[in-house]
């Protein structure tokens, strides 16, 4: 019995021990469970904080890219700045956002500002001179880096604004292009320590974008201003030119009127001189000396008559009053007549005149008198500007119609010489009336003498005649050289015309 009790007591003791062990283990387990719950809570909290921060960053980045897009949409500062401040204020939810720009007078001026919940009621033009004793905006501008007032109540630079009673922290970011500071982006919050390091980084990136947009807008404004000035200048110059043109036009008309009147007035006395000189003829038959004097008078009268006729031709061309009497004309005949007329002169100057292919030309519809004048002027010039012993050629060709270019059948005449040539700079001007490529003083006198003087009308008349026939005239010459004599070639295109 005793031994049974002893066994039972031993078993009870063992059981007690086991129970104690179990209880200890249970306490340990409970402790462990408590600890892991706490750990799990911590991890959950950390995760939540991290998620919140990530969400905040994502929102900030999205807002930043939206404002960034806005920045590129405006070309003028007036449109850009209000949109930027309103955009940053609305997207980031700050209490106030403003942009100050640095002006020429060394003053920072509020150009745009937007406060939470308010409309654009802020008084613009708030100015901060660069010598102000305290200003957060100024501090950022002068340092060229951001200035953060985490608690405006204790910050030494903070100066309260009347319009912003709720400000508790403020961040001023410089608007910079390289080393140049354009102004400051000022952001205020109703919460103290509202700007974390990461916020500042995002906002400075945004400020850099805004600075570029401001610079672009300033450059654009400069270009617009420059364009306006230029346009004004162009208008002014055009008006001046217009006035000068009118004066020239009036002077040209006066000149033409004078030439017409003078030419007409000269004709009568010239006819009288010719008449009286011819009357003298029978009376001086026996006096060869006086006869040669009278011949001289008649030659001079003839030359003057030609000049007067040229003057009248040129005034008619100028006023588009050249009357053409077109008829089927054989150019070869006209050239042959001219050849005979100049025979003596050509011999005297030892010049040879040859023609080529003239006989192959078709009959053209043209005014024969005008064709004579045209070729006469070209031939006189070829004679005048070719030294003794040279040669002159009149070459003809037929240019078939080119329907594609809208051109009918044309004849081409090329009057070329082995003369002194013409500098390219004069190639167009010599067709203007009274234009002479050389100073008139250098000319010798005489109609067909080498470099003989002329009134500068021959080519103007030639061009007028060609134009009136619907043709073209131009010169080809490599330049002027009295020693090597490169020569000139005058090209004339004349439509064959309908018969
Ligand atoms: P001008 O009465 O002076 O000859 P033109 O109108 O006939 O007037 O010619 C204008 C200018 O063109 C001339 O002064 C001359 O300098 C130049 N010129 C014309 N034809 C020739 C030519 N065949 N060779 C060289 N120069 C020429």
Task: List its salient traits.
single chain, alpha+beta, 5-stranded mixed sheet, 8 helices, 13 strands, 51% helix, binds adenosine-5'-diphosphate
Verbal overview:
This protein has 499 residues and is of the alpha+beta class. It is built from eight helices and 13 strands. It has helices spanning 2-72, 77-92, 136-143, 197-280, 288-318, 331-348, 368-384, 458-468; strands spanning 96-102, 107-115, 127-129, 147-149, 169-177, 180-189, 327-329, 352-356, 364-366, 391-399, 410-417, 472-476, 489-495. The strands form three sheets. A six-stranded antiparallel beta sheet has the order 3-2-1-6-5-4. A five-stranded mixed beta sheet has the order 8-10-11-13-12. Strand 5 and strand 6 (180-189) form a beta hairpin. The chain is elongated and about 200 Å long. The model has no long low-confidence stretch (mean pLDDT 89). The structure holds adenosine-5'-diphosphate. Adenosine-5'-diphosphate is lined by residues 377, 381-382, 385, 417, 419-420, 422, 430, 435-438, 454-460, 488.
Total beta strands: 13
Which ions and ligands are bound to the chains?
Answer: adenosine-5'-diphosphate
Give the helix proportion (percent range): 40-55%
- Termini separation (Å)? 167 Å
What proportion of the residues form beta strands (DSSP E)?
15-25%
Mean pLDDT: 89
Strand order across the largest sheet: 3-2-1-6-5-4
State the oligomer.
single chain
């Amino acid at each position: 019995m005793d031994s049974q009790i002893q066994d039972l007591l031993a078993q009870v003791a063992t059981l007690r021990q086991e129970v104690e062990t179990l209880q200890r283990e249970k306490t340990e387990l409970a402790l462990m469970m408590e600890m892991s719950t706490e750990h799990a809570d911590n991890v959950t909290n950390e995760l939540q904080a991290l998620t919140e921060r990530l969400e905040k960053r994502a929102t900030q980045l999205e807002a930043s890219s939206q404002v960034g897009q806005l920045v590129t949409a405006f070309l003028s500062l007036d449109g850009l700045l209000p949109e930027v401040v309103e955009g940053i204020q609305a997207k980031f939810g700050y209490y106030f956002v403003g942009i100050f720009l640095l002006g020429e007078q060394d003053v920072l001026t509020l150009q745009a500002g937007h406060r939470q919940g308010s409309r654009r009621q802020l008084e613009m033009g708030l100015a901060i001179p660069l010598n102000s004793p305290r200003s957060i905006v100024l501090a950022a501008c002068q340092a060229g880096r951001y200035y953060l007032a985490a608690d405006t109540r204790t910050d030494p630079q903070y100066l309260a604004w009347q319009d912003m009673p709720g400000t508790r922290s403020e961040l001023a970011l410089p608007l910079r292009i390289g080393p140049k500071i354009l102004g400051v982006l000022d952001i205020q919050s109703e919460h103290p320590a509202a700007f974390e390091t990461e916020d500042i980084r995002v906002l400075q990136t945004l400020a850099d974008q805004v600075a570029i947009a401001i610079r672009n807008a300033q450059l654009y404004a400069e270009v617009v201003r420059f364009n306006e000035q230029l346009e004004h200048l162009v208008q002014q110059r055009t008006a001046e030119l217009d006035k000068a043109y009118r004066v020239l036009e009036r002077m040209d008309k006066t000149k033409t009127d004078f030439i017409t009147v003078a030419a007409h007035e000269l004709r009568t006395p010239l006819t009288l001189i010719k008449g009286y000189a011819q009357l003298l003829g029978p009376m001086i038959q026996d006096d060869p000396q006086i006869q040669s004097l009278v011949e001289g008078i008649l030659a001079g009268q003839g030359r003057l008559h030609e000049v007067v006729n040229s003057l009248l031709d040129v005034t008619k061309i100028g006023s588009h009053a050249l009357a053409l009497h077109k008829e089927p004309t054989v150019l070869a005949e006209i050239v042959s007549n001219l050849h005979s007329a100049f025979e003596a002169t050509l011999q005297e100057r030892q010049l040879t005149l040859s023609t080529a292919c003239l006989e192959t030309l078709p009959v053209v519809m043209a005014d024969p008198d005008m064709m004579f004048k045209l070729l006469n002027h070209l031939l006189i010039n070829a004679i005048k500007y070719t030294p003794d012993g040279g040669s002159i050629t009149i070459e003809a060709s037929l240019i078939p119609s080119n329907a594609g270019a809208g051109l009918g059948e044309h004849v081409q005449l090329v009057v070329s010489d082995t003369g002194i040539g013409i500098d390219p700079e004069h190639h167009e001007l010599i067709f203007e009336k009274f234009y002479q490529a050389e100073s008139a003083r250098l000319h010798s006198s005489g109609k067909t003498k080498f470099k003989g003087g002329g009134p500068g009308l021959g080519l103007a008349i030639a061009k007028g005649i060609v134009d009136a026939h619907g043709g073209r005239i131009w010169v080809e010459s490599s330049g002027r050289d009295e020693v090597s004599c490169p020569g000139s070639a005058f090209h004339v295109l004349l439509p064959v015309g309908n018969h």
